[in-house]
Design a protein that fits this description.
The chain has a seven-stranded parallel β-sheet, sandwiched between helices. The chain is α/β, with parallel strands linked by helices. It has a single domain, classed as NAD(P)-binding Rossmann-like Domain (Rossmann fold, 3-Layer(aba) Sandwich). α3 runs parallel beside α4. The longest helix is centred in the middle third of the chain and has 28 residues. The protein is globular.
C-alpha cells in the first residue's frame, strides 16, 4: 500500500535557475519565488537597473542572485548570459524563458513590419536561442533539468487583436512540444505556461491603447479578476520542480478558466 509523506523541503533547493524578463512583472515575481524556494537565481533582461532592484531584494532576504544584462534579440547575448550562469554558480538546473515584447493591439493589416520583426526576434527567435543554450548548459553541468517557456492563452485560438504576438506564442508552443520529445530521453523536461489576463505593465499598456480592455477580459474570466504575477510564477515553479517530474510537453493554461 502506498504511503504519503509531507514534503517540506524547498522545491528548488540546491538548484541554479536562469530567468529571462526578470526585471518586472511575472519574471520578477518568479525570481523572488524561486529564491524563496532555495534556488540561486540568474536574472536576465535588457534593463539592468530593474534587475538590480529585484536582485537586491533577493540578497536582502538572504538569497543568491546574479544580474546579467541580456538582449533576447541578440543570439550571442543570450548564449553569453547562460554561460555566465554556469561561470557564476557552476551549473544550470532550470530555466524560465519569460522575456517578451508586445506591440499595439490591432488587426493584421495594421501591424507594422518593424513591429512584426521585433516580436519575432524576441518572442520566438529569442526563446529558441535561449532553449538551445540552456539545453547545452544543463546537459554539460547538471545532466538533467527542466525548462519552462512563457506562452499565452492568446496563442490558443485565432487572435484578431494581437495577431503577431499570438502567432509567435503559438510557435513557442510548438518549440516546447518538439523540445520535450527531443530531450525527454536525456532527462530534460520542457513545458510552457499560457497565462491569461495578468496585472502587469504589458496589460496596462494595452489598456491605454484600447480603453475598456481590462473590463472585457475580466468579464470573460470565471474567477472574475486578473491574475497577480506571483500566481503565474507559482505555476512555473511547479513545472520546474520535481513535483512535476512526469510532466513534459505541456502548455499549461493559467487563465482563471477563461478558455474553459
Amino acid at each position: 500500500m502506498d504511503t504519503f509523506t509531507s514534503r517540506t523541503a524547498p522545491l528548488l533547493a540546491g538548484k541554479v535557475a536562469f530567468v529571462s524578463g526578470a526585471g518586472r512583472g511575472i519574471g520578477a515575481a518568479a525570481v523572488r519565488l524561486f529564491a524563496q524556494e532555495g534556488a540561486r537565481v540568474v536574472l536576465a533582461a535588457r534593463t539592468e537597473s530593474q534587475l538590480d532592484d529585484v536582485a537586491g531584494a533577493v540578497r536582502a532576504a538572504g538569497g543568491e542572485a546574479e544580474v546579467v544584462p541580456c538582449d533576447l534579440a541578440d543570439t550571442a547575448s543570450v548564449r553569453a548570459a547562460v554561460d555566465r550562469a554556469v561561470e557564476r554558480f557552476g551549473r544550470l538546473d532550470v530555466a524560465f524563458n519569460n522575456a517578451g515584447v508586445f506591440v499595439p493591439p490591432g488587426p493584421l493589416d495594421e501591424v507594422l513590419e518593424t513591429d512584426f520583426d521585433r516580436v519575432y526576434e524576441v518572442n520566438l527567435r529569442g526563446v529558441w536561442a535561449s532553449m538551445a543554450a540552456e539545453v547545452e548548459a544543463i546537459r554539460r553541468t547538471a545532466g538533467t533539468g527542466s525548462i519552462v517557456n512563457t506562452s499565452s492563452v492568446g496563442s490558443l485560438a485565432g487572435n484578431p487583436v494581437l495577431p503577431a504576438y499570438a502567432a509567435m506564442k503559438r510557435a513557442v508552443n510548438s518549440l516546447t512540444e518538439s523540445a520535450a520529445r527531443t530531450y525527454g530521453p536525456e532527462g530534460i523536461r520542457v513545458n510552457a505556461i499560457a497565462p491569461g489576463n495578468t496585472l502587469t505593465e504589458m496589460i496596462a499598456t494595452w489598456e491605454d491603447a484600447s480603453p475598456g480592455l481590462q473590463e472585457r477580459l475580466v468579464a470573460q474570466c470565471p474567477l472574475g479578476r486578473g491574475a497577480q504575477p506571483a500566481e503565474i510564477a507559482e505555476a512555473a515553479l511547479w513545472l520546474l520542480s520535481e513535483r512535476a517530474s512526469y510532466v513534459t510537453g505541456v502548455v499549461l493554461r493559467v487563465d482563471g478558466g477563461t478558455r474553459a
